[in-house]
Design a protein that fits this description.
Blueprint: E1 2-6, H1 10-22, E2 27-32, H2 44-49, H3 63-68, E3 71-75, E4 79-83, E5 88-91, E6 94-97, E7 100-103, E8 107-109, E9 122-123, H4 128-141, E10 145-149, H5 153-164, E11 168-173, H6 185-197, E12 200-204, E13 208-212, E14 218-221, E15 224-227, E16 230-233, E17 237-239, H7 242-246, E18 255-256, E19 268-270, E20 275-278, E21 285-287, H8 291-305, E22 319-323, E23 326-332, H9 335-341, E24 345-353, E25 364-372, E26 378-385, H10 389-401, H11 406-410, H12 426-438
Parallel strand pairs: 1-2, 1-7, 2-3, 7-19, 9-16, 10-11, 10-16, 11-12, 18-20
Antiparallel strand pairs: 4-5, 5-6, 8-17, 13-14, 14-15, 20-21, 22-23, 23-26, 24-25, 25-26
Length: about 450
């Protein structure tokens, strides 16, 4: 069987490795524009800050590793078209035949049409090449004032990196809070307050209308001109769907796939940032542009091609980050989005400590849990705290994936030891607050 993958990022690279484990004889070819296989885009801000020494350190495996697995690499190669009738991929280096084709074309940074966005000193933060350019600019120009356009995950992690380098940082966000797709205004404020303590400032409800100077000298925010000598555009990403559209596959914001990750052509699969899957809360279609989702999609697609009856489950988009030592974990629907979707919810919220109140060194933690009123099921959570957020958000996400109700969370069996956690965990206390409203 000839299996061709278009895209050498997280989804494409992991698919090739999973497929090789399942089928030792298949001819597997990966076509990718970049010169290397998988690296971690999430790690790029940490390269800028110096926490990770150099860009090459975020490459997961060298190209030789894949070649030893007898995976043919066509890197530095662009897939121009797909001939579905002949079952060949047409590249700038020739044609590649396939029996099964996997689109792992990923996403690209969205750059809004801001005047001056092409000027020297303006960057996106999506690729290894972006980081190399930013680091070269930092070394050459030694900028002192950075403006980050966009308060999503990449924007905030970039802002943290520049602040750690001693720069003055301003984050500009069109909406009314940071991490607007992940956090409600109350939990977002906790993160904002912590970042402001470390010298990051914010402007909400406004946009950058112009970037002036090349190299950058200032930006225009509303009617105000603000000094800046470096600008990061972090206004989100868009799925790379052009190739899929060109060959007549069903496409919305992403490439539409079924539960097996097959496109409207059953011999073509789509995985990773480019694939549009099912939202576990609303049942509608959604993009799940997370590294964890990309790896799970890769596994499911490989197993299905190998003949296993497996499906990719609807997603809650569980995510976590850390900013200046503050951990932020989320999944599912926010209170704000539930209102927009017309979903009746009950919210429980608890502010406490990660350890018993009597034990020294406990850190503040806020847990917000969201339950659907009609069936009392857990459909979302937001946790902001000084430690151990990861374990708690993972626990709640796992419960939601199993259809847990508010009662299940309230009476959850948890572990206790004074140096680690209280007798009644904050996630259960938050659920108790919701349960009281439902009784």
């Amino acid at each position: 069987m000839k299996i061709v993958v278009i895209g050498s990022g997280t989804a494409g690279s992991n698919f090739a490795l999973f497929m090789r484990k399942l089928d030792r004889k298949a001819e597997i070819t990966v076509i990718g524009k970049e010169p290397t296989m998988q690296y971690s885009p999430c790690a790029l801000p940490h390269v800028i800050s110096g926490t990770i020494e150099k860009p090459e350190d975020v490459i997961v495996f060298p190209n030789e590793f894949y070649e030893k697995q007898k995976i043919t690499l066509m890197l530095g190669t662009e897939a121009k078209a797909i001939d579905r009738e002949r079952k060949v991929v047409i590249t700038d280096k020739g044609e590649v035949p396939y029996d099964k084709l996997v689109l792992a074309t990923g996403s690209k940074a969205f750059v809004p049409p801001i005047k001056g966005v092409e000027n020297e000193g303006v960057f996106t933060l999506k690729s290894l090449d972006d980081v190399r350019k930013i680091n070269a600019y930092l070394s050459e120009r030694k900028p002192k004032k950075a403006v980050v356009i966009g308060a999503g995950l990449i924007g905030l992690e970039g802002a943290e990196a520049f602040a750690k380098l001693g720069m003055e940082v301003l984050v500009v966000e069109l909406l009314d809070r940071l991490l607007p797709t992940m956090l409600d205004k109350d939990t977002a404020k906790l993160v904002q307050t912590e970042m402001e303590k470390h010298g990051v400032s914010f402007r909400f409800g406004v946009g950058v209308s112009e970037i002036m100077g090349s190299p950058v000298k200032s930006v225009k925010i509303g009617d105000e001109e603000v000094e800046a000598d470096l600008v990061i555009v972090a206004t989100g990403v868009r799925a790379n769907v052009d190739l899929a559209k060109k060959v007549g596959l069903e496409v919305n914001r992403g490439i539409v796939v079924n539960e097996h990750l097959q496109t409207s052509d059953p011999d073509i699969y789509a995985i990773g940032d480019c694939a549009e899957v099912i939202d576990a809360v609303t049942g509608g279609r959604i993009l799940s542009q997370l590294g964890t989702s990309a790896v799970r999609m890769a596994k499911v697609a490989a197993e299905h091609i190998a003949g296993k009856d497996v499906s990719f489950r609807p997603v809650f988009n569980t995510a976590i980050t850390e900013l200046f030592g503050l951990e932020i974990g989320t999944f599912g629907i926010t209170e704000d989005r539930a209102k927009k979707e017309g979903i009746a919810i009950t919210v429980g919220k608890f502010k406490g400590s990660t350890k018993p109140e009597y034990y020294p060194s406990g850190k503040p933690i806020t847990v917000k849990v969201i339950f659907r009123k009609d069936d009392r099921k857990l459909i979302g959570a937001q946790i902001v705290g000084g430690e151990r957020v990861w374990g708690r958000i993972m626990t709640l996400s796992a419960l939601a994936q199993k259809g847990a109700t508010v009662d299940n969370v309230v009476y959850l069996e948890t572990a206790y030891a004074p140096p680690i956690s209280p007798t009644i965990d904050p996630i259960s206390v938050a659920a108790e607050m919701a349960l009281r409203k439902l009784r």
